[in-house]
Amino acid sequence: MASLHVKMSTVLYAVEVAGIIAFAFSGFIEARQKNMDAVGVFTVAFVTAFGGGTLRDLLLDRRPLFWVEHQEYLILVFALTLIAIPFSRHLRHAFAEKIINYADALGLGLFSITGASLAADAQMPIFVCVMMGVITGVFGGVLRDIICNEIPLVFKRGELYATCSFIGCWTYLLLEKINLTQSIALLIGIAVTFIMRSLAVRFHLTLPG
Amino acid sequence: MASLHVKMSTVLYAVEVAGIIAFAFSGFIEARQKNMDAVGVFTVAFVTAFGGGTLRDLLLDRRPLFWVEHQEYLILVFALTLIAIPFSRHLRHAFAEKIINYADALGLGLFSITGASLAADAQMPIFVCVMMGVITGVFGGVLRDIICNEIPLVFKRGELYATCSFIGCWTYLLLEKINLTQSIALLIGIAVTFIMRSLAVRFHLTLPG
Amino acid sequence: MASLHVKMSTVLYAVEVAGIIAFAFSGFIEARQKNMDAVGVFTVAFVTAFGGGTLRDLLLDRRPLFWVEHQEYLILVFALTLIAIPFSRHLRHAFAEKIINYADALGLGLFSITGASLAADAQMPIFVCVMMGVITGVFGGVLRDIICNEIPLVFKRGELYATCSFIGCWTYLLLEKINLTQSIALLIGIAVTFIMRSLAVRFHLTLPG
After folding, report:
1. pTM score, two decimals?
2. Minimal CB count within 10 Å: which of A208, B27, B119, C52?
3. How far, in Å, CA of C57 to CA of C54, rounded?
4. Residue of B37, B64, B68 lying closest to A157 (CB–CB)
């Protein structure tokens, strides 16, 4: 039992690190496209990577905050920014846009499902868990877009966004309800969100007006 | 005593539900006017209805959050959105504007006074209670307007807005200080805020520059 | 020991009051430039003065919030607004801009270092302390600029801003590490931030692209 618990928290840790990198990367690229300086780029990467999880921790009253508990997360984003700046000088716009979209889709999946999972651990009712998942997944990207003076992806009439997170969270929570191993349920939930969002971008899937 | 306490919390509950519906409705209409899709409309309704109360609960350190404790609030807004979308297709703009104004005025009154009331219950000093009331009342609408890319009503030079909440909160808190029954003080505070805001919109009442 | 503790908290109190006045003032002037009415001006002054510290308290889980514990802070900003409005009617734009810049630089220094200091008191790791300092120092001004519909100073490609706070916080924390008296370390950290930001504005110092 104890070893399973350790394993699960290792899975969650790995998922969180991957989510941070994916979102930091999307923030990094978008800030570069806006021609910001090094501090601006780091700030946007930081806010995108930690915004959703911070709101999740505030709403669930989890302390210390995840990036306070894991100082290495901060150092990671800081180091990534320093390393990536020289490489990003000549990124073409169309290619940058693609990277942002996929990195964002991955971050969306990873953070949505950890958000739903932590809410479920805190015994919240299921509808609340779903909303916590969606908020955690969506909020970092919303902050990134507001800072970069773009209309947030999530509010644009256009390709499915929050919907993917919504369906991914339900998938994960229902799979867990029927007693599937938690780490498998997690991975399926993440995959559903990521694939659905990627398909939505690729084939311009939208909701009916 | 116990029965009085139950009664009071029932009154507060009813007021909170009414405030949620009023604000959700104003968010719903504004998002429809912006031609958002179903998820966008739900998000804006959700944020408008729960933004002020969530900030209040964060600032007062009240957990669980009110919409976590009452999962039915979430389901209510979700159901309202589903029901209302087909009906709203052909709403004329001028009529929609009117509905937004009145629903917003009602939400403003309801949330301002519950905010002030909960702060007073937590033994905060009176000036802080007033600010908590104003913040709770105003914040949901501010988020709605930011998301919909409008300058928030409260910051526009124009008809009295925060002022109505400010005066409503003082009215409520002073009435309670002189030992009026709490539920009556509450209703008077709400009425003062709502009527004052409605008159301000109707007759274009403004502060001197 | 006890007397030293009292002295330190007196120093922090004085620094906090000075920071509130400086930021409230910068908010006040910017709101006047935007031709807001009295309530708008008070709101912007309030948000600028208390935004950074409130986020700091939320992230560090400090309750009561600093402006709830010190009701006099609220009354101070309220009184300042009432007194200052008649005087500000005929402020020339260029002069107002200068005042905003210096008041903002001072507020940045004062809040950055208190943020870092409170995080250090809460035993946070040093990199987290620095980020808390930067967030506390920068956030009030970001809110002010968003409300006034300006691109936040901190995100503009231009004169050093967050960088000054960043270096000031490191200076303070390292001086404290080598056992300099805390109040002297504090004053040096504040001075470094303020002077660096003022020089950056005066001589248009920027980071390399």
Report:
1. 0.84
2. A208
3. 5
4. B37
